[in-house]
Amino acid sequence: MGSVWELDFYSRPVLDDNQKKRWEVLLCDGAQSVADSSRIRYSKFLSNKQVNSIELQQAIEEAIEKSGESPTQIRFFRYQMQNMIKRACDELGVSARLSRRTLTLQTWLEDRQENFYPQQPGYQEGKSPATVQPVEVARPLPDALIGQRWAMVSLPAKEFADMPEWEIGFGEAFPLELAGIGPDTMVPGILIFSERALPLAGWMSGLEMAYLDVQVGQISQLLLETGSNDTWIMASLNRPELKQEAERFMAAKEEANQVHFVAVQDNPDSESFAGFWLMQKRSFG
Fold first, then answer.
1. Which of 86, 119, 152 is at the close of a domain?
2. CA quadruple 86, 22, 107, 259: dihedral sign
3. Distance CA 10, CA 12 (A)
4. Which of 101, 173, 180, 266 has the fewest CB atoms within 10 Å around its CB?
5. Are strands 230-236 and 139-140 parallel, antiparallel or unpaired?
6. 3-state SS record for 106-153
7. What are the RNA-binding protein Tab2/Atab2 C-terminal domain coordinates in residue numbering (predicted)?
8. Which 8-state DSSP code applies to residue 178?
9. Which of 119, 151, 167 corresponds to the end of one domain?
């Protein structure tokens, strides 16, 4: 995948001398495996008159110069800023993608909201601005990619320390310290079994994998959230036992601070994975 950075460009709860909100660019390197550690940290305040793609491009160039490397991809989660961010990244020849896999950035942003911004002159206490985006209708998977079976499993968090040694075709992870869970926490997951495991995993790898969710009601479904607001129907929970298993998965996910995984295999006896993604459902803003 190459080097992936995470970016936020938005107003902060801090007023300048003209009583206008200050804007800020945040850039950091994103986690792609359980062994990653963040090294790049770049922040820059801008006035509301500097909110444009040219200023953002200059900030990204400064971060590249400071870090000594250029990313191959930049992830961002604010839907409403996508035109400006993509324009700035295009000028630099860097791919920019809407994603809810910006966990390193969100952890850093939460720390700044709690410990940094309140210490700044002009700070205004209040809720963080919400991310606004259109609501999308859940879409079914392409017929050729639907799994034949799925099962709920769980692993102690400490088991993921060996993940770099697992045989995985496609996948992505993050250090569990980012999620604030201990080594003995049981992390739930969904195993999907398919005769077309590799094509399914390859298709999933082209998405920005966010998290798994369950819709319970007249129509109950196992859902995969990707990108900034895309929803895919992974399985219909059309039998009571499937619905109960999915509800147990959701309860276990709650116990693990919303950390979970999805894996794709040819069959239950396989010792390798066509795909494996560690994920966490969380709020952004």
1. 119
2. negative
3. 7
4. 180
5. parallel
6. HHHHHHHHHHHHHHCCCECCCCCCCCCCCCCCCEECCHHHCCCEEEEE
7. 135-280
8. G
9. 119
Question: What does the alpha-carbon distance between residue 279 and residue 208 come to, in Å, rounded to a whole number?
Answer: 11
Question: What is the rounded distance in angstroms from the CA atom of residue 7 to the CA atom of residue 84?
Answer: 12
pLDDT digits (tens, 9 = 90+) for 36-79: 777 899 999 999 999 999 999 999 999 999 999 999 999 999 99
Q: How much is the pTM?
A: 0.90
Output Rg (C-alpha) for the chain, integer angstroms: 20
Q: What is the residue range of 111's domain?
A: 4-119
110 with 144, same domain? no
Count of domains forming the chain: 2
Residue 155 and residue 29 share a domain: no
Q: Is the same domain home to 270 and 158?
A: yes
Distance, in Å, from the CA atom of 78 to the CA atom of 9, rounded to the nearest integer, reads: 8
Query: What are 206-259's pLDDT values in tens digits?
Result: 889 999 998 877 788 889 999 888 899 888 888 888 888 888 999 999 999 999
